[in-house]
Amino acid sequence: MSDQWWFCLKHMAVEPDEGCPNKDRLGPYESRGAAADALKTAAERNEAWKEEDKTWNGDD
User: Fold this and answer.
1) Region Disordered: start and end of each range (predicted)?
2) Cβ contacts of residue 45 below 8 Å, gap of 6+?
């Protein structure tokens, strides 16, 4: 079995490599726990990028 885990956006669940097509998933992640936090991680990254991107903030 692979050591990679995915978060399925269709089923809102953690999956191993043998799961839904990658187009429906976030990942891969190194652990089941990291995959379970995929939506939180994505939200945190989006917020960080928003703060760093002057164009996003209208400061161009």
Assistant:
1) 37-60
2) none
